[in-house]
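Protocol step 4 of 5: obtain the predicted structure for the target chain.
Materials: sequence only (see below). No template structures provided, no constraints applied. The aim of this step is simply to have a reference model before the mutagenesis design in step 5. Sequence pasted as it appears in the construct record:
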Amino acid sequence: MSRASSLLRLQDIDQSIDRVQERLTAIELVLQGSSLVLERQAELSEREAHLRATEAASRGAEDMVELQRQKIEQTEGSLYGGSVQNPKELQDLQREAEALKRHLATLEDRLLEAMLEAEEAELRRASASEALVRAEGAVAEEHIQLKQERSLMLADLSRLQAEREASLGSVDQSDIALYGELRQGMGSVVVARVQDGSCGVCGLILPASASQAIRNANELVRCPQCRRFLYAG
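Step 4 output (structure tokens):
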């Protein structure tokens, strides 16, 4: 096995390890917190707060209606109770009672509106609560599947790490050190395949001398442009 092919094998394993680790990271992020559930929880909290506000408004409107009715009862008690005999005072009480009744009608309309708004707010809260339950159920099912996938990914990772350890035995120590250094700067592709006489990464057409040198198993050839190792298999 040539030095380049040994490095290519190591690179293939490392790329597979990278993909598995990226997927494991993504799985952990989902398992740690679902954005869907968080959104539904926030929506439910908002609607519960609105419901409490509408219920408070409804109770306030109901208290005002009750207070107004008491005022009417007191005024009519004075009007019809016989304690007031003066015609002028009786006329004033009559007008006051009529004004109180007119305002009572307004307050009752407001109470009805407040009650309807509270009922609507309760329906919205119930809808948000049901949506949260559905989201939690969906996320729970998703988590079961993700945990199963995570187990498979961890098994793959162990296998790949064992393969990597085994592959290192066929790679020169100096090549391993240089490969690791280049991987930090070049990313996951340190060894480029030669395709139709060109570097498979940067596309540079390789000179004939480079093509000949690549066939030498004991020599590592680097692309003159991107500086990656070249492999022609």
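Step 4 remarks: Residues 180 and 190 are 9 Å apart (CA to CA). The radius of gyration is 40 Å.
Proceed to step 5.
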